[in-house]
Amino acid sequence: MSLPAASRLFRSALRTQLVPTANLKSKPAKHEVTAGEQAVALTALMAAILGPSGWILAHLEDYKKK
Fold it and tell me: Where are the membrane-spanning stretches (predicted)?
């Protein structure tokens, strides 16, 4: 019973603009990011996320023994 009431409330809020809409304006990029820069950033991101996880998974048996 509360779900339809919440749904009606949300729909009403959107209809009456109680939730303000964002005024977004886009411009061309000031600096074009090259493919090399993207590759370096993606590699660093993946190393930062997957490196520690891989280390833990590779040494899982060592952690179980302690």
Answer: 39-58
H-helix or E-strand spanning residue 27: none
Q: In whole angstroms, give the CA distance from residue 27 to residue 62.
A: 53
Q: How far apart are CA 8 and CA 43, in angstroms?
A: 46
Average pLDDT per 10 consecutive residues for the chain, totaling 66 residues: 72 67 82 95 97 94 84
Q: What pLDDT does residue 6 have?
A: 77
CA distance 64 to 50: 21
Please state the pTM of the whole predicted model: 0.49
For residue 35, give both structure tokens. 């493919």
Unique residue bearing structure tokens 């590699």: 43
Is residue 14 packed enough to be buried (19+ CB in 10 Å), middle (13-18) or exposed (0-12)?
exposed
